[in-house]
Amino acid sequence: MTRENSFYGPLDDPAADAGHTDHPPRVGFFTDTSVCIGCKACEVACKEWNLVPEDGLDLTGMSYDNTGMLGASSWRHVAFVEQQLPLGRQETGLPDLPTGPSVTGVQQEVVAEGMRHAERGGAQLGTGPVDVGFPSFELPGATTGAEGRTDFRWLMSSDVCKHCTHAGCLDVCPTGALFRTEFSTVVVQQDICNGCGYCVSGCPYGVIDRRPDDGRAWKCTLCYDRLRGGLEPACAKACPTDSIQFGVLDELRERADRRLEQLHGLGVGEARLYGRDPDDGVGGDGAFFLLLDEPEVYGLPPDPVVPTRDLPEMWKYAGVAASALLTAAVAVFVGGGRR
Amino acid sequence: MSQDDGILREPRSDAGAADTGARPFGTDRHGPGKGRGGDGGDGGRERSMVPRAEFRSYYGRPVLKPPVWDWKIAGYLFTGGLSASAALLAAGADLTGRPALRRGCRLGSSAGLLASMYLLVADLGRPERFHHMLRVAKPSSPMSIGTWILVAYGPGTVLASAAELLPASVRATLPGRLVRLAARPAGLASAVVAPAVASYTAVLLSQTAVPAWHEAHRHLPFLFTGSAAAAGGGFGMVVAPVAEAGPARRLAAAGAAAELVTSRLIDRRPGLVTEAFTTGRAHRLRRASECLTLGGAAVAATLARRSRTAAAAAGLALLAGSVLQRFGTFEAGVASTRDPAYVVVPQRERLRRAAAGGESPV
């Protein structure tokens, strides 16, 4: 069943490549982060529908992101990025004035320096006119209108398993627990997984993980049960702004292209699609994104490649090494006489 | 207004904190949203001496998951390699009439195999489901291939060592005679598979997204088979008298040479990922390994021809060197997943080259 592009390169129909006949079209997610508002409804809906256990209540210090990253018990993860950058053609006219949030680097330093010399170590802040370049304790955007405009922007993005065309986790799974569904998604069969952990290292996105108390590997199933029942995945259903769009992948790609064109026309030149290209290192993602900055800013690898690409070469080198060992073992007995 | 205005105010929650000037996210003067570069903006992590290209990341958080495997898998890399090359020595000793070397290596090979089995099963998240490995044979998964290699390798090894352990009372009985008769073909059969046992583990590590292991996929097979040969030869020098251990000494010296040369080649590859091998704990383990292996090989080629004590000491040094090499390589992979630089910087570089017109070679 192994065809030319089974392991690497563009592959139109992963489900057929995996042996499905008469299967539904490939489905996936298009996550348009330009309209994500960071409500985390996707995270909650996913946890509730899939009965994903609680995985620690932490304050990470990473803006409003207290989930941290995708993992065995976090199948959706909303990233929050705070940046000093205007959106599109916004012009604040205030680039040199000490406006903006309390958390940009230069202002932090100004404040910290001021506090070091202050009589009461900063306790007088807000009680009198102190010029430390600190505009307010208000949240960014708490005021409306021109006076509230800053060059601050907040990037939010709901990350998820990419359901790659060439999935590293699926390729390395030694038990067959991970499989390609008829929808071309990648799912773990929990009654088969024996927790070898190979998929964790096989994923070039760092998505799948082993649940410590459970011992098995878990990740997004793209709500396989809901798909079988003709429903859209829980996260897409819950998303209030349609940032997460579910559908047939070909249609999503067209929609994404149109949205990208629209944003570029509006002056948001930094908008880009991530994981849409079927020629990339994983053959294109089943779940792809519209991002407003480089992927690594969101914690995504800029150019992921499925490790399987180099597998034939690896076996070739291993074969040479094995032959060398066998030859050496024969030689040490043949040469050197009876010593 | 002053503080004496009688209004109760909530104290600042971070009053008195030392890090009120810390940058809560990766902004610095290089521009908006720049992640930490070589100076480690978020601190606390072991940094390399070599300055790195500026790169961006999500709060310095790793992109990849670190391997969930622990020391048991690093240990298996050693025990598996030891078992394989001991099986080769045992088969050769059997054919060339070296009974002490044959007996010691058969038993060592079997012990290495049993230790490997234990380590592999114990590292599973669900050890009671280890047999699920046997429900498929999957060419794209080196772990599946390795499972079947071990299935082909194991029985012969165990049978050959069983013949060495038969009590005198059983040796004369029919089953005892059959086992002794089968020992040589069984040992030879496992010796034929042994090189695969010693080398497949390199593919096992390389067929991952772990940058240090994947980028070294041309070198790891030679490092691992060299390390296995050094360990097996060292083991033979420990268990067999000097008169019989000639092949063990030669195998040890050849393996050590291959291991040392490959290890140095790994350290000299261009690119950031090499730093995972040349810095931190991985570097220390591998340096110690090189010293032990070099010393052991030098003694194996000289003093070990005459002195059993020297041979045993050299053998132990080679075994220890192999252990440290495996743990060092394992550690390099883990370190390369913990730092986003190893993922982001090479991939950015690849994109930059591709954009410049050239095809990305690796």
End-to-end separation of chain B in angstroms reads: 66 Å
Radius of gyration of chain B: 26 Å
Number of strands of chain B: 0
What's the order of the H and E elements of chain B?
HHHHHHHHHHHH
Structural class call of chain A reads alpha+beta
Helix count of chain A?
9
- Principal-axes shape call of chain B: globular
Let me know the average pLDDT of chain B: 87
**How many beta-strand runs of chain A?**
10
Structural class of chain B: mainly alpha
Strand content of chain B: under 5%
Assembly annotation: heterodimer
Number of domains of chain B: 1
Helix-strand sequence of chain A = HEHEHEHEEHEEHHEHEEH
Q: What is the helical fraction of chain A, as a range of percent?
A: 25-40%
**Total domain count of chain A:** 3
CATH architecture of chain B: Up-down Bundle
Report Rg of chain A: 25 Å
Name the chain pair with the biggest interface and residue counts per chain: A-B, 103 and 103 residues
Architecture (CATH level 2) name of the largest domain in chain A: 2-Layer Sandwich
Q: What profile does the largest beta sheet of chain A have?
A: 4 strands, mixed
Biased composition (Basic and acidic residues) (chain B): 1-13, 26-47
Subcellular location (chain B): Cell membrane
Keywords (chain B): Cell membrane, Membrane, Transmembrane, Transmembrane helix
Membrane topology (chain B): Multi-pass membrane protein
Report on the structure:
The complex is a heterodimer of chains A (339) and B (362). The N and C termini of chain A lie far apart (53 Å). Chain A folds into 3 domains: 21-86 and 156-305, 2-Layer Sandwich (Alpha-Beta Plaits), CATH 3.30.70; 105-150, no CATH class; 311-339. In chain A, the strands form 4 sheets. Chain A has a 4-stranded mixed β-sheet with strand order 8-1-10-9. A two-stranded antiparallel sheet of chain A has the order 2-3. In chain A, strands 4-5 form a two-stranded antiparallel sheet. Chain A is an alpha+beta fold and 339 residues long. The longest helix of chain A has 24 residues, at 311-334. Mean pLDDT of chain A is 85; it is low at 97-102 and 130-134. Chain A has helices at residues 14-17, 41-50, 105-117, 168-172, 198-202, 224-228, 234-238, 249-265, 311-334; strands at residues 27-32, 76-84, 152-160, 178-180, 186-188, 209-210, 217-218, 244-248, 272-274, 287-291. Chain A has 9 helices and 10 strands. With 362 residues, chain B is mainly α. Chain B has a single domain, classed as Formate dehydrogenase/DMSO reductase fold (Up-down Bundle). Chain B has 12 helices and no strands. Chain B has helices at residues 71-95, 99-122, 142-165, 168-171, 174-206, 211-215, 220-239, 246-267, 275-278, 280-301, 308-338, 341-355. At the A-B interface, strand 2, helix 3, helix 4, helix 5 and strand 6 of A face helix 1, helix 3, helix 5, helix 7 and helix 8 of B.
